[in-house]
Design brief:
Mean pLDDT of chain A: 92
Number of strands of chain A: 9
Largest sheet of chain A: 4 strands, antiparallel
Helix content of chain A: 40-55%
Radius of gyration of chain A: 18 Å
Order of helices and strands of chain A: HHEEEEEEEHHHHEHHEH
Strand content of chain A: 15-25%
Structural class of chain A: alpha+beta
Oligomer: homodimer
Chain lengths: 242, 242
Amino acid sequence: MTHPLQSLVRYFEARSPLSDDDRRAIAGLPHSINALRGGDVTLRAGDAPETCVVVLKGFAGRQRQTEQGRQIVSIHVPGEPTNLQHLAFPTSASSVRMLTAGVVAVIPAREFSDVASSHPAIGQAILASIAAEASIAREWLLSMGRRDASQRIGHLLCELAIRLKSQGLADLFAHGLPLKHNQLADILGLTPVHVGRILKRFAADGLVANRKQPIALTDWNRMCRECGFDPAYLHFTGTGGA
Amino acid sequence: MTHPLQSLVRYFEARSPLSDDDRRAIAGLPHSINALRGGDVTLRAGDAPETCVVVLKGFAGRQRQTEQGRQIVSIHVPGEPTNLQHLAFPTSASSVRMLTAGVVAVIPAREFSDVASSHPAIGQAILASIAAEASIAREWLLSMGRRDASQRIGHLLCELAIRLKSQGLADLFAHGLPLKHNQLADILGLTPVHVGRILKRFAADGLVANRKQPIALTDWNRMCRECGFDPAYLHFTGTGGA
DNA sequence: CGTACGTTTGATCTTTCTCAATAATGGTGG
DNA sequence: CCACCATTATTGAGAAAGATCAAACGTACG
């Protein structure tokens, strides 16, 4: 791995073009690197963070809590920033925590936003990133509202496969997705028990290799077909997701 | 009504400060005014629109389609732009149509984005708007995943009440919300039949005045309590939503 | 090796959907 | 202003997806 913030550059460039100068400006951002454990909190609901946290390794999730349980409303794979929206408003209604052990880069928000003002393409990339997150949330809304449990799980697996691939991390997915049933349940609005049952059916149908912790897709095309996956909503430039 | 785009200015200012000059720049944007009927399409999925559509009267909804039915993934009340995300990327994965009869202003995207570049505060307001839409989508995700049908309906009513109020349109809500059961169902991931049953229960419980077409809240405080509504996620500056 | 955490399984219960029939409503043209 | 048509609401009965509860089973890690 060359520069720690290289993966952030790659993330931005998946949707918005940057010049060499822009790339250098991002790589030059002050930052600290933190190793975190699964469950560690990166942003507490209600806080007004003064930093932008970028995932370098592992998975992070944004979540909201109610009496009837938590809901994970977005997940962030390596390369993805977790709280760009705080360049738009100070406080957060949700919190962010690591879903697995991992490493994050922490960038002071002021410096980030200064660089964005002086480099319009970076500002545009930030806008595109926030808009892409909104688009993903809307797709999740479609899943929650109109897809049944199996399609929902399958669709999420497909989405993550593409998002990881766009960061050059396909291997991680081929090797399996390190999320627990109860985390998947909180992402999908289901019960861990039911997630387990469906994963079992997937394994029986040959759609997935193991139903245990590292879940690996075995039949990409069939999975896409069965759960109606179309990567257009991810808004990657180019072939729609490579 | 003074200037047609005045309500857009008001929308932006609910989350992001603007100067007189910024306001003038927005009011000076070229635009055409269109009267539309319920069901009219404003943006077709897959298109690369060259205009920004702002709702002036009535309600618009962004929707996605699957074999198992449509899902409305966002709604837009008067004053709100419907497709700011196209300042970030060209194509759309969803379509936008009027949920009721109404009036829209259509602004050329190029001019809009020129004004945004020359007026940083307007660019910032656009960023805040897109981020707020994302935040709303995440809240809807929480509703879909972890709230039952009644809380979901109640929560939506509360949200719309606040959003309308922030545009000075509370009356419209006091007078009732002109959405059909089947539209509410497609917003909430439910069935029109079930929406009807719950509205009936709301009316019996005195939470709502009529269960027919214009649905009017009668007991704001109780409704907020029963469905766990907290307007923080709307990110209005000031008192959190007034 | 034992403890804590995660998974699997089965039985049962609820919420919400589905289907189908009937009743309102609202807008349109005569 | 009324009759008609299309759309939307209401109601009831039955079915289904997913939740809940509780127990047993694995497995990783100290």
